[in-house]
Amino acid sequence: MKHLALLLMMFSLSSLPAWAEEIKIRVVDPQDKVIVGAAVAIRSQGKLLSKQTDEKGELAAQVAMPAEIRVTAAGFDPSDLKLDIEPGRDLTVRLRPATVHTTIEVVVREEGAATGTTERTALEIDRGGARTVFDAVDKLVPGAYVTRRGVMGYGLNSPSGAVMIRGMGGSPNTQVLVVVDGRPDVMGLMGHPIPDFYTLSDVGSLSVTQGPASVRYGSGAMGGAIEIKPAPVREGMLTEFTTSFGSYNTGQHRLSNGSRIGRGFYHFTAGIEHTSGDRPNSAFHNQDGTLAIGYDLSSIWKVSLQGRYGHFNVEDPGPVSAPMSGRFANVGRGGFNVVLENSGGRSWGAVNFYSSYGHHMLWDGFRSVDATQGFRFEQYYLITPRLTVEAGTDVIRFGGRARNIKTSLDYGEHHVSEGGVFSQAHFAVSDALVLNAGFRYDHNSLYGGMVVQEFGAIYRFGERYSLSAAASKGFRNPTIRELYLFPAPNPALKPEHLWNYQATFQMRPTQSLLAWVTGYYADASNLIITTGRFPNLKLENGGQALNRGIELNGRWQPLRRLSFTSGYAYLRSTNLAPYVPAHKLNYSLDLDAGRIFINVGGTSVGRTWAGAARTQPLGEYTVITLKCTAPLERKVSAFITLDNLFNRRYQVVAGYPMPGINAIGGFNFRF
């Protein structure tokens, strides 16, 4: 123990590389007034440096390129910068006043202020061993749970690939909305996301809203929302290539390149993922790519085009009690956005025109094509230094056509349109008290109009403690599958509803310790359930659930290069959904040892049930992941990940045992 303490002290005192340069950072608001006490986190060459701006809103720091810089301040949205070459001048960072959401957001970047926001950089997601977006959500958010059935590849057959937030998700997964590049991303006919489409090839930030996000996003966000944003525009040119290979012929290979050229910029990525699977007939193969190009029309206006496409083939080996072959899903999905952004001193926002599409081919003869078109306009207004108002509108049309070539059954072509107007307000009554409110009027071509609201308040007890409370309403309209397709269509179905109430207490008793506890009460009604037995199934609005829970989160950094993160979620429900645990614990240890970065992360899950009747229990399990990353030189690093480190036997989905200890390793090149 004595030698370990001495070793950690040596790591904490090691110096920056010789190529580090001094840069000066100045932080201001939209009126160019300096912000005192803004927190600036600088990560470069595997090292994290945290500083605060002085009375002039400035600070100086030694920074080695490339570097990631994040600036946060109470009452303002965070700002992220990526520097790949020495800036050659002082940096001025302009922060926008924050619109504090009444729901708890977990932005996968770094800890935020009194909103209960946990934050991590995209680099930290990768260092934690996550292989997909849903994998990162499961590892970082204790209140979220993702089902899976093998080493890679979720498939389309529920329950694998379902994400539940505080017990809400649905089967299939229609109660949690996924937003990609600012557009809602669902299979237009089925109304659920496609988890194998969400790779980490181009993820600049990832946020998980726990609780209703219907004021902002409308239908589908009743239980929460997962928002995937692309990597930010880089200063200078950077090419990055990552390749890895491991157990079961598993590999992940990613290439990215981006640059700013004058007033224009571009960024593209390409990725390939593959595995033979840990069981016969469980192979998975995926390739995807993204492209973003843009141009600064002026100091206020910017236009950009963003697009991504992915194609994957995934096999389902069936349960071990009845193994199968030839069960596959072949899926291609893509989409694009045309975005016009503006950023002035007292107003900023964007107009987003988007479209997405997909084609599905399944082993049982099912064939479908689906498409979504829409636009979204949102604008923020700084009415006074203490009052910010957001106003916007969105319209979306989705649907498609499906048939079965084996049974000659034609499901026909169906489309649904909906849209709404929404507004959110953020009012800082004083330095201690902040009030929030929001509403949406939503109109659906089948169900007419609906109003949803949210309210919240935050009270800060000095700089170290805060208490927040919120109430919000969510809803979900029936999907085209439930209305017109299978297994028991019912055109008379009505929307589902949920009211969520929660309170959060956050504290930072010392600079090295941040912790918060959240209690919530969610009342879901008019849920769509399946009754009867095949072939006499029926869908109807007859379900209800009261979900109550407590979530504990904390991060402790006793040394500059050593940190511990943990989160625990307890859920008690009157109608616990299948594959939803009542207890879940996430934890990780990060050690920056100078020449090697070590992450040890684990998830402990309580007992779950494989069906609504709760007659088939799945045992509790604990899975530990170890990832080591070592820079070989300035632009090259090597890494290795060991999953299920202690070779535990467990199942997440009944009949699909998860693989034992498995490894994957590779290299990252930046040039």
Polypeptide structure, described:
By secondary structure, this protein is mainly beta. It folds into 2 domains: 19-96, Sandwich (Immunoglobulin-like), CATH 2.60.40.10; 226-670, TonB-dependent receptor, beta-barrel domain (Maltoporin, Chain A). 5% of the residues lie in helices and 57% in strands. It contains 5 helices and 40 strands. The strands form 7 sheets. The chain has a 22-stranded antiparallel barrel. A 5-stranded mixed beta sheet has the order 8-13-14-11-12, with no helix packed on it. Strand 20 and strand 21 (347-362) form a beta hairpin. The protein is globular and about 75 Å long. The two termini are 40 Å apart. Mean pLDDT is 86; it is low at 1-19 and 99-119.
Give a concise summary.
The chain is mainly β. It contains five helices and 40 strands.
